[in-house]
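Service request form, structural biology core

Requester: graduate student, group of Dr. S.
Request type: structure prediction, single chain
Budget code: on file
Notes: please return the result as structure tokens.

Sequence provided:
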Amino acid sequence: MSVEAYLVVLGVVALERLAELVVSTRNAAWSFARGGTEHGRGHFPPMVALHAALLVACAAEVLAAHRPFVPALGWTALAVAVASQALRWWCIGTLGPRWNTRIIVVPGLPLVTSGPYRVLRHPNYVAVVAEGVALPLVHGAWITAVAFTVLNAVLLLGFRIPAEEAALRHAPGAARSDAASA
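Core staff response, request fulfilled:
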């Protein structure tokens, strides 16, 4: 894969992120209209910055360090990145209007246990972790893969998942309204 093709892949992912934001904004309004309350707001801006920086860092590392495309690694990583997108959109589709990028709990709605939530407690986080490793490695941006993975782990394990779990614990019968998402 050429560097130009990789930059196109990153551009497509950026457009997908914009689509997510549109869906998230609409769904957050739906949740708030039904009495939803937001939790864990403090970690949200760093999380947004980290995820935006991932795309920029992928391009910057490949361009500045002249990272080569290694077919065995690159095509495998691209397949994992595509699979992570499929899992992410499966989460979004399963949760419907309950999904958004924030932690908003709507009182009285049952916890979603269908789709990927039937198997995993936080399937969208699995997608985020897989993509954070795979997308940089498509074109050999290993420093970005390592840095994002470490920083994302700190955010997910230190802040995001505990905030989501606490919000759900304190709202018996409440729905998972953020898709366990990032």
